[in-house]
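Table S2 (text version). Query chain:
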Amino acid sequence: MGRKGQMQMTETIAILFIFFILLLFGIIFYFRYQQSAFQEKQEELLGVRAMETTLKALFMPELICSRGEAEPEDNCFDTLKLDSAAAVLEDNKDDYYFEIFSYAKITVHQVYPEEKEWLLYEKTKPESTRKEPTFFVVTLRDELSDSTQAQYGFGYVSVEVYS
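Corresponding structure-token output:
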């Protein structure tokens, strides 16, 4: 009688041991899944923030091509504004423009008719682990002082957002 009770007790302990091992495997699997899902969500949010920052940079009134009361030209930056905007953005980088762009680097590259580059904004995150670059093609208008006609060029905006 004692042997039968001892045998049932050993079976019960073995079943409980197996149950807790399976439970432990389930918890480990769940936490690994949650960790990978969290990383994917962070990547997605970084991409969304990169696109939002690019759109904010593209529609800055400080850079966009305009003529008085006329409608501004789409996807066009004025090179005269670009030349002076870098200094203005640098002076107000820590207060006004940081609220708009956060941790990012915004550069305008001219490819045609000559290569030229304007660094508009750069604020890097000290412990940054990742950055998400985005690019957008723009037209660059150069108002020549000795001519009534504007000269157009071709370039792109490079926006890097830090996580």
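Notes on Table S2: The chain has one domain: 46-162. The helical segments are 2-58, 79-91, 93-101.
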